[in-house]
Amino acid sequence: MNRNQWLPLFVSLVFATGLMGWIVWSQRPAEPVVSTQVAPPVESPPTQITSPVDEARVAELRVVAERSPQDSQVRVDLGYLYFEAQRFEQAIPWFESALALDPRDVSVSTDLGVAYFYTDDIDRALGQFARSLEVDPAHAQTLLDIGIVLALGKQDFEGAIEAWEEVRRLDPDSPEALAATDAIERIGTAHP
To answer: Which of 17, 43, 50, 174 has its CA 20 to 30 A from that of 86?
Structure first.
């Protein structure tokens, strides 16, 4: 290859390399944008996408509920059918009627509070949790849920941490204590 042939090849190669470099450089990702928004400290409540409910089971339980007006368990079962399908507005009246018959059922009381939370009734949720704690002041799930509602619903991170610390103090080896520890760490990271 003589010099006259080499020069156009060299110029073409330099031009192609420069062009390729420019293309690659221009296609690079933009600089990350630093957000001034604070990330949520714990998992946000899921978007309310309702799931199907076993309507045959609902119909069956409604017949039993009508025949047995003093049976709290059938009302609890109906409430949980709706609750598990994330149909909280439909779960609420069943949980309320079950608690009217058995006001000492802490689990149902706490889940009623959760249903209130998911229907954006934060104060009512916290009030229901307070009733749960009147029955069982050491109920770990209630305390965990209080922390979640305070953090997400009220942006009261100090109150949330206090509730979660109480869970860890009362039942340090429980799944609720593990969840409380995780939530405290998330708040610490998001809100140093």
So the answer is: 174
